[in-house]
Each structure stands twice: as structure tokens, then as C-alpha cells.
């Protein structure tokens, strides 16, 4: 069973800002999955923002987190998670931990989360932050996420939080039968959110609309 008591979202302030964020930015735009809405209303997004950006944590826009990276706009985080249709029993792989915000939201919707970040400073600070906030079912790994994290595969769901021209092959391989993978696919300035479902070892692709993410680097991403 998934519990929504993990983390300290319930006891911190900004609860009203979170409620407004969920109602005006997310539910109103069509995300109807109540578990996703509750998780978004629970995780204290301001705890993941740099100190100078705390006042912007619940705004309807991406949030800079340093090192040229951003956490996606709250609506995009919610829409990606809703597309995965998580039940609470899955093992999930996230590529691009960033500040750990999306991993924290996923941790309330799944059994176990593995998240991979290639910038050592972000991997370390996110692991510390998630531990401090009590998200015990999230495991942060430092490395090239385009290789996935084979040790814990297969995954019931995979989400890629950075954009590449194609989805890295190792990630499609590490997706369980019946599993779902959501990723921004395309060039730097033209990307489409795509949802892949694995059925009988075949991938069914659904286009979910235009989006804009920072680039996915690494062996099967952009070389840099
Ligand atoms: N989900 C994050 C935001 C992700 S921003 C959050 O909630 O904060 C995209 C992240 O992907 C950045 O932190 C970037 O460093 C990371 N990234 C880019 N290429 C990567 C790769 N090959 N492996 C792992 N992480 C990568």
C-alpha cells in the first residue's frame, strides 16, 4: 500500500500554496488522477528549491535549481506521472534526479524508486535532501542514466526527465513487460512528450503533446 505520510509535507507550511497549485494549475488543465493530485499536494516543493527561489516554488513555471538545470513546471511533473498510471506496487526508474523533487512525488505513488543523476553535486545533494525529508524508498545513483540501472531492472515504469533525439535503447530493454515509459523526445527546441507501453515485447507509442526539457547527455543521449 502507498502511504501519503512519508516526508514532512503535511507538517510544513505552504500547504495552501500547494492546494492552489494543484487546483488551478493541474486539475484545471485535465490531470484527474486523485493519487497524483494528492502526492503533488503533499510533497513540499519549496524544500527542493534553492534558498533564493523558495518564493517561486509553487509558481506555474519551471524552477532553476543550479548547474543550468530546472525542475519542470508542476503541471508537467503531474501530467508525466499521471500518464504512467502507477498503482503503488511498481519499481520505478527515473533518469535525471535534479534536486530530487519528482523522485519524491513518485515515491508516494510507487513501491520503490531508483533515480540516476550524472552531475555528482546534484546526485549527492539530492540524496542528502531526500534522506533528510524521510523519503526512504528512493535510491539515488550517480552515473550516466542513458545506460539505465540494470541491477534493479526490470522496471514497471520509467521516466526520463531530460530530452534526447531518441529514447536510449538500454532503458527500453529495462522496461518490464506491460510497463510504461514516458520521455521528452526531440531536438533542443522541438520536443514531444511520448508514452511507450511494452506489450508482447513490442513498443506502442502515444504522442502526448509538445514540451521543453533540458538535454539528456551521455552515451545514448547528447554527447557533451
Ligand atoms: N526530475 C528533476 C529535474 C530534472 S532536470 C527534478 O525533479 O528536480 C534534468 C536532469 O537530468 C538534470 O539534473 C541533469 O543533470 C540530468 N541529466 C542529464 N543527462 C543525464 C544523464 N545522461 N544521466 C543522468 N542524469 C542526466
Please explain how this structure is put together:
This protein is α/β, with parallel strands linked by helices and 224 residues long. Helices cover 26% and strands 28% of the residues. The chain has helices spanning 15-27, 34-42, 74-84, 101-107, 120-133, 169-173, and strands spanning 63-66, 69-71, 91-95, 112-117, 138-142, 155-160, 175-187, 190-199, 202-211. Strands 5-4-3-6-7-8-9 form a seven-stranded mixed beta sheet. The protein has a two-stranded antiparallel ribbon with strand order 1-2. The protein is globular and about 45 Å long. The N and C termini lie far apart (41 Å). The model is unreliable at 1-11 (pLDDT under 50). Residues 65, 69-71, 95-96, 98-99, 101-102, 116-119, 122, 144-146, 161-162, 214, 216-218, 221 line the site of S-adenosyl-L-homocysteine (SAH).
How many helices does DSSP assign? 6
Proportion of beta-strand residues = 25-35%
What is the total number of structural domains?
1
Listing every helix as H and every strand as E from the N terminus to the C terminus, the arrangement reads HHEEHEHEHEEHEEE
Rg is 16 Å
What is the topology, as strand order, of the major beta sheet? 5-4-3-6-7-8-9
The helix/strand class is: alpha/beta
What is the general shape? globular
- Strand tally: 9
- Biggest sheet descriptor: 7 strands, mixed
Distance between the termini: 41 Å
Mean pLDDT: 94
CATH architecture: 3-Layer(aba) Sandwich
Unreliable stretches (pLDDT < 50, length at least 5) are 1-11
CATH superfamily: Vaccinia Virus protein VP39
CATH class: Alpha Beta
Amino acid at each position: 500500500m502507498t502511504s501519503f505520510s512519508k516526508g514532512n509535507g503535511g507538517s510544513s507550511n505552504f500547504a495552501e500554496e500547494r492546494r492552489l497549485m494543484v487546483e488551478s494549475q493541474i486539475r484545471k488543465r485535465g490531470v484527474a488522477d486523485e493519487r497524483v493530485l494528492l502526492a503533488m499536494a503533499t510533497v513540499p516543493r519549496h524544500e527542493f528549491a534553492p534558498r533564493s527561489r523558495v518564493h517561486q516554488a509553487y509558481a506555474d513555471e519551471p524552477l532553476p535549481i543550479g548547474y543550468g538545470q530546472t525542475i519542470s513546471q508542476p503541471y508537467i511533473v503531474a501530467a508525466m506521472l499521471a500518464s504512467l498510471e502507477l498503482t503503488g506496487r511498481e519499481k520505478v526508474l527515473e533518469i535525471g534526479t535534479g534536486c530530487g523533487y519528482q523522485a519524491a512525488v513518485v515515491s508516494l505513488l510507487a513501491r520503490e524508486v531508483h533515480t540516476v543523476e550524472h552531475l555528482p553535486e546534484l546526485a549527492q545533494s539530492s540524496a542528502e535532501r531526500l534522506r533528510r525529508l524521510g523519503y526512504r524508498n528512493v535510491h539515488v545513483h550517480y552515473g550516466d542514466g542513458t545506460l539505465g540501472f540494470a541491477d534493479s531492472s526490470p522496471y514497471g515504469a520509467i521516466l526520463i526527465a531530460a530530452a534526447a533525439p531518441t529514447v536510449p535503447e538500454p532503458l527500453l530493454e529495462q522496461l518490464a513487460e506491460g510497463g510504461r515509459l514516458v520521455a521528452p523526445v526531440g531536438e533542443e527546441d522541438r520536443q514531444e512528450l511520448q508514452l511507450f507501453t511494452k506489450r508482447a515485447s513490442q513498443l506502442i507509442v502515444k504522442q502526448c503533446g509538445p514540451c521543453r526539457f533540458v538535454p539528456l547527455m551521455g552515451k545514448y543521449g547528447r554527447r557533451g
